UniProtKB/TrEMBL annotation:
It comes from the Bacteria. Residues 1-25 form the signal peptide. Coiled coil: none annotated. The keyword Plastid does not apply. The keyword DNA damage does not apply. Keywords: Hydrolase, Protease, Signal, Thiol protease. Residues 23-146 form the NlpC/P60 domain. InterPro entries: NLP_P60_dom, Peptidase_C40. The lineage of its organism: Bacteria, Bacillati, Bacillota, Bacilli, Bacillales. This is C40 family peptidase.
Length: 158
């Protein structure tokens, strides 16, 4: 299973690279940071590379980009600018109601092509599809945190 997930992440990197129009382009800083913690175990309340919860993961990644996020997913949902699902771009935060309470209870980072990285309580840091039946039915919305400048600097392949 881990090999399949690593292959998927590698495929995303190749896909991002091809999307820039140059086969020699490198991965974005955002993708690099996500890849550096890929597979890290889930830990409730976790905010370090020894274990992350969902909002600890997003906060860690954005901190590496020089951007401060709130600590919990519901507070992160109050940051940034709302963006429609059809307008998602790499680096947008995607939010879900996974607790059944009707409120935001989970967050991930959109990577492009319908995929997002997040801290899964059962599998740690991984990539999933927004179109999977589980996440599609629990999607709440998305927020754009990166400005045009920070998007060009951190989310576009170099």
């Amino acid at each position: 299973m881990r090999k399949a997930v690593i292959a998927a992440a590698t495929s995303l990197t190749v896909l991002f690279t091809m999307g820039t129009g140059s086969a020699l382009a490198g991965e974005s800083t955002l993708t690099s940071v996500v890849n550096s913690v890929y597979g890290t175990p889930y830990k409730y309340g976790g905010v370090t590379t020894t274990g992350f919860d969902c909002s600890g993961f997003t906060r860690y990644v954005f901190k590496k980009l020089g951007i401060d996020l709130a600590r919990v997913s519901s507070a992160q949902y109050k940051q940034g600018t709302a963006v429609s699902k059809s307008q998602l771009q790499a680096g947008d935060l995607v939010f879900f109601n996974t607790s059944g309470t009707g409120r935001v209870s989970h967050v991930g980072i959109y990577l492009g092509d319908g995929e997002f990285a997040h801290a899964s309580s059962s599998n740690g840091i991984k990539v999933d599809s927004l179109d999977s039946s589980y996440y599609k039915n629990r999607y709440v919305g998305a927020k754009r945190i990166l400005s045009k400048y920070t998007y060009a600097k951190y989310a576009v392949e170099s």
